[in-house]
Specification:
Helix content: 40-55%
GO molecular function, one term: heme binding
Number of domains: 1
Keywords: Heme, Iron, Metal-binding, Monooxygenase, Oxidoreductase
Radius of gyration: 21 Å
InterPro entries: Cyt_P450, Cyt_P450_B, Cyt_P450_CS, Cyt_P450_sf
Number of strands: 10
Cofactor: heme
Strand order of the largest sheet: 1-2-3-8-5
Distance between the termini: 52 Å
CATH superfamily: Cytochrome P450
Largest sheet: 5 strands, mixed
Number of helices: 15
CATH class: Mainly Alpha
Shape: globular
Family: Belongs to the cytochrome P450 family.
Strand content: 5-15%
Length: 399
């Protein structure tokens, strides 16, 4: 594969739990690759750990191009990269750091410790509801999706009953090819109207939640608070809901992994980190831009180039991880890039880790006989979204 070869991106992959063969080939022969989006737009793809980490951490790279535009990553424009949310929130520089500092205290280790009992209770309740229906279920729909929705609703002070609305709004914001532009615009408008009303209600009667604090104790405008709420609702449930399902699928696809955790629950934390590293359905990757010439991986990237950092491919790099192809539940240290790196690393990663650990703890405790109800090769991925996930994870257990 030559450096000038232009691949279609995202790279097609029939296997749900295994990486596309092109990842290893690109890392070995063409770590700075020319790719083409479904929209026809060109981009540069990075797949080596060192290159991806350096680019994500480099402050010269931004989320938007010099003129403020985002690449069209799908057949339609729109979605989260071109949303009002993306245009309102500061994307780089001191303003971005200030925005993160304002939110950071809601995602500290102390806050996570305080949330953990409630998350555990909710996870137990979901297992109760799931097992009351029989001995089979779609783990994603019955457990993986509602758990992080409940958590982020608690943090933001929005009704849990509206979670189905959030699901649809999130899907449209994360769409590459799944929705038409009219559907995306209508959903974004409805989402904005909903949160505008919610922010107005918090201004009239604040509660003990993040949005109330932003309304009363920050200098953010209503537009920035609404956009922050949108961003946290999308990021706070969609990615984690998908990851709970993917983690379970990975651990149950080879059931010796599940049995190892049953035998030694102390492995849960490292198993969560290894599941994050091994995730081949992490989605589109991080898009970055730079307005000056930049050298990476032995190649020069021209100003204005759209750069896609594939964290999932980087996490399989043998140069960074011993036996990178193997799932080692005890792997430590595990400096994976699932949450990115640098100033734009995932704001809610402590929350995501807590939810994933609790989800795994509760499933192991309550459903030790859990197993996939289909062959691993029959699992289907969700298509057309910026984030990757399973369409469903059918499971069964002994009663």
């Amino acid at each position: 594969m030559s450096e000038r070869t232009a691949l279609q991106y995202p790279i097609p992959n029939d296997a749900v739990l295994d990486p596309p063969a092109e990842w290893a080939e690109l890392r070995g022969k063409c770590p700075v690759a020319h790719v083409t989006f479904a929209s026809g737009d060109p981009a540069t793809l990075l797949t080596r750990y060192e290159d991806v980490k350096a680019t994500l951490a480099d402050p010269r790279f931004t989320r938007t191009s010099a003129d403020g535009d985002s690449a069209r990553v799908g057949e339609e424009s729109g979605g989260v990269l071109d949303s009002q949310m993306a245009s309102v929130l500061p994307q780089h520089g001191e303003a971005h750091l200030k925005w993160r500092r304002t939110l950071n205290k809601w995602f500290t280790a102390k806050r996570m410790a305080a949330l953990r009992p409630g998350i555990t209770a909710m996870a137990d309740r979901l297992v109760d509801e799931m097992t009351a229906q029989g001995d089979t279920a779609d783990l994603k729909a019955a457990f993986g999706f509602p758990l992080p929705v409940w958590v982020i609703c608690e943090i933001l002070g929005v009704p849990e009953d509206d979670r189905d609305k959030f699901s649809y709004w999130s899907d449209t914001l994360l769409s590459m090819t799944r929705y038409t532009q009219d559907e995306i615009v209508a959903a974004q408008t409805a989402f904005h109207v909903y949160l505008a009303g919610h922010v107005a209600a918090k201004r009239a009667e604040p509660g003990d939640d993040l949005l109330s604090e932003l309304v009363t104790d920050s200098d953010m405008s209503d537009a920035e608070i609404i956009a922050t709420g949108q961003g946290l609702l999308v990021a706070g449930h969609e990615t984690t809901a998908n990851m709970i399902a993917k983690m379970a699928a990975m651990l149950l696809a080879d059931r010796t992994r599940w049995e190892a955790l049953l035998a030694d629950p102390k492995l849960i934390r490292s198993a969560v980190e290894e599941s994050l590293r091994m995730d081949v359905n992490a989605g589109f990757g991080m898009v970055r831009y730079i307005d000056r010439e930049f050298e990476v991986g032995g190649s020069v990237i021209e100003p204005g180039t759209t750069v896609v950092c594939s964290m999932a491919a980087a996490n399989r790099d043998e140069a960074a991880f011993d036996d990178a192809h193997a799932m080692d539940l005890a792997r430590t240290p595990n400096p994976h890039l699932a949450f990115g790196a640098g100033a734009h690393s995932c704001l809610g990663q402590a929350l995501a880790r807590t939810e994933l650990q609790v989800a795994l703890e509760v499933l192991l405790r309550r459903l030790p006989s859990l197993e996939l109800a289909v062959a691993p090769g029959d699992l289907q991925r969700v298509e057309g979204l910026l984030v990757g996930g399973m369409a469903a994870v059918p499971v069964r257990w002994r009663t």
